[in-house]
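DM from R.C. (forwarded with permission)

"hey, sorry to bug you on a friday — could you get me a structure for this? deadline for the figure draft is monday and I only need the backbone to look sensible"
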Amino acid sequence: MPSRPPYRTVLIKRSSGERAVLLVGPVGLPVPQACLFLTSQYRNPGCAANTLLKVSGTIGILYEWADRNAIHLHERFARGQFLERWEVEDLVRRLGSSSKEPAPTNVVPIRRKKKSLEGARANLRKPAQGVSLETREVRIRYTLKYLEWLANYQCRGASPIPENLRRESVRIMLDSLKAGIPKNTKVHRSATRLGLTKQDHDRIIGIVHPDSEDNPYPRYLRLRNYLVFRLLETGIRLSELLALKATDFNLQSCTMTVHRRPDDVEDDRVRQPVAKTKARMLPISEDLNSLVREYVMTDRHRVAAKRKHGFLVVSQRKGRYAGQPISATGLRDILGDFNEKYPEYKKIHSPHIWRYTANDRFSEAMDRLGVSPEEEARLRNEIFGWADGSEQGARYSRRHVIRKAGEAFLSMQADLLKGRALHFSRDEAGRLGSEK
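My reply, with the result:
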């Protein structure tokens, strides 16, 4: 019997600009319960479409696992029968494996013919590639919320079993699922991302300058791509860069405003890039200000003059998309083309690395200005668009923290050596005196 088609998430853009996310089942129809959950629990409270896509994808994994194990979630929950512990354990294993692979198994076939140790190892079936601990935790938490909601929704009205028994059964199911959340999802700090070094930073910006002989881009794309690198240099997110409009720049006061515009009618991209948190106004250098003015008056005007949108960075390749707002894939291709020409940067150069780099530079500037740690944290959240009280800055300024810690550690060792040298000189002087 052929396997059933997988569940898939569909993103729809309505004429009003609203993005709707649907979970479509094997027969091509939306799953009503999942769609209602996404709307009531995430869409109505104002969550971004990207969040709904992640939640829908996780719910799709849940239903795919249930189908593979002949578990009819809706019917069972309506009867007041919920997932058993052993079923939850198997579900946790599935949530921790790759979306494209079944749960891993290590089954060694029994053969009569004797095999060498190497041959036996070769016959081991390789387990499916697992997801990161962070992804596993997020999937389990989304599944927890959905199963709790579904248990209440399917038993709405008259419960088929006593209410206290139903609540206890749901609690046992949810507690079993919570037990699968990784205890420590934080990787070792040495393995976290680091911003670019000052040397790499300056070299990359120098290479992508329009007049550079080492520039890897065609001449007609150089000004736009240089502007992209300079905007990433400010530390704004990829989605924020893609959502920037020419009117977000005040060329008189040299400022740039990052707006949050969910469901923007002017944005024809189905996967609309949206600022992740709060809007903010940022001062920009006169050099960057002049660069924006030059791009808007020249390259952008030539390809986007007839387009009825105000987005800053546009596609300049010939064809139907010329003058349209550039997509996230298109922006990543800009960096990808650079990395192809300069492969030494492949492992360290990505759009988000620039945000880490900007945080390091910001920390260095705060040190030079003598700003207190408390005030620095407040200013960092304002500049980089984090909520008040957020501790994300500590994660993004890791290179600076490592350097400062190293300097302090070396200073400590120098003080110890200095103290030992002084102690040694006194002992030596005492010994010489006694000999006299």
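R.C.: lifesaver. Residues 91 and 410 are 49 Å apart (CA to CA).
me: no worries. The chain is about 50% helix and 5% strand.
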